[in-house]
From TrEMBL:
Pfam families: adh_short. Keywords: NADP, Oxidoreductase. GO terms for molecular function: oxidoreductase activity, acting on the CH-OH group of donors, NAD or NADP as acceptor. InterPro entries: NAD(P)-bd_dom_sf, Sc_DH/Rdtase_CS, SDR_fam. One of its GO terms (cellular component) is cytoplasm. Belongs to the short-chain dehydrogenases/reductases (SDR) family. SUPFAM superfamilies: NAD(P)-binding Rossmann-fold domains. This is NAD(P)-binding protein. PROSITE patterns: ADH_SHORT (PS00061).
């Protein structure tokens, strides 16, 4: 195990969608590195059950629908209850690729831009975009309350850096995560919360079995895909390696691992810049967050 990976030892990680694919790859790597893990997913998959078993003291499953804020709060409270502290690492990984309705389900339950089956909101947007934002806010509150630094990883995609006509909704949610991550760059120096974003290319996971013909439609094959383990290794590095500062957007695909550079200086704010902005636009946020420092985790009742 690399020195960097071993720095996960003793940490607590909360992983949404950790029962399959990329999330499960990270869960396995984190357990191996000595971390304790809360796996927050819709169901205890067979693959996860085989990984953590019934009596694994290092990893626990908590039923979570990431669309429900209360479930995310419960998952953090669960960590406190079973591991004695709120998580140090929060991985917003749960995601869907515009699923269409299954035969026995109401079409309105599922979320596909071109099939256009939804009412007032897109489930794909709630799962892929709104949940990572909610988790980041809850993580900030939990970490400030516990007076410890932490890391939030948002799982985007290389399509968040490009475009997709057939999956425009999915693509838009992944773009949005990148804008959010860049906006949160100052949180590391100001609040001790490093918010970073990982953009995997095509990964061989069950996501591609969501719809019949999906992998053919998007030309998914061994020639272009990487493994969940490749992504998990990049994720661990992104979390523990101090060279990756808050606001970093990291791409991992067949061509390797690369930091995405953007114009503008969000990630390169110098101390003097921070003092200037802190005095103006940041001040209301910092005042609000100051009130959360040292406040014990209280979930829903904790909201101002
Ligand atoms: N597979 C790829 O090619 C690829 C590429 C780039 C990015 N990603 C992203 O990586 C992340 C993980 O995808 P994956 O490929 O491992 O998919 P996957 O389908 O194997 O795993 C997704 C997990 O999310 C869970 N999930 C879905 N909706 C949920 C909800 N409402 N509440 C709680 N959990 C929920 C599922 O139960 C599943 O365990 C997603 O955000 C996906 O968009 C995947």
């Amino acid at each position: 195990m690399s020195d960097l990976r071993s720095s996960l030892n003793g940490k607590i990680a909360l992983v949404t969608g950790g029962g399959s694919g990329i999330g499960l790859g990270f869960v396995r790597m984190a357990i191996e590195a000595g971390a304790r893990v809360v796996v927050a997913d819709l169901r205890l998959s067979e693959a996860l059950a085989a990984t953590i078993g019934a009596s694994n003291e290092q990893a626990k499953f908590v039923h979570t629908d990431v669309r429900k804020r209360g479930d995310l709060e419960t998952a953090i409270g669960f960590s406190l209850q079973i591991f004695g502290d709120v998580p140090d690492i929060y991985v917003a990984n749960a995601g869907v690729f515009e699923p269409s309705a299954k035969a026995n389900e109401s079409p309105k339950q599922w979320s596909n831009f071109w099939l256009d089956t939804e009412g007032d909101s897109y489930a794909t947007a709630e799962i892929n975009f709104t949940h990572p934002l909610k988790l980041t806010r809850l993580a900030t509150r939990a970490l400030l309350g516990a007076k410890k630094p932490g890391v939030v990883v948002l799982v985007s995609s290389t399509v968040g850096l490009s475009w997709s006509y057939p999956a425009a909704l999915y693509c838009a949610t992944k773009h949005a995560l990148i804008g959010f991550t860049r906006s949160m760059a100052p949180a590391e120096s100001l609040n001790g919360v490093k918010v970073v974003c990982l953009c995997p290319g095509i990964v061989d996971t069950p996501l591609w079995q969501t719809r019949e013909g999906l992998s053919e439609q998007f030309s998914v094959s061994d020639k272009v895909s990487i493994t969940p383990e490749d992504v998990a290794a990049a994720m661990v590095d992104l979390i523990v390696n101090e060279k990756y500062k808050g606001g970093t957007v990291l791409k991992v695909d067949r061509s390797g691992v690369k930091v995405i550079e953007f114009s503008g200086k969000t990630r390169d704010l110098k101390d003097e810049d921070l003092v200037k902005v802190k005095d103006r636009s940041f001040a209301p946020v910092q005042d609000l967050l100051a009130a959360e420092i040292g406040r014990p985790w209280g979930g829903v009742s904790d909201r101002l």
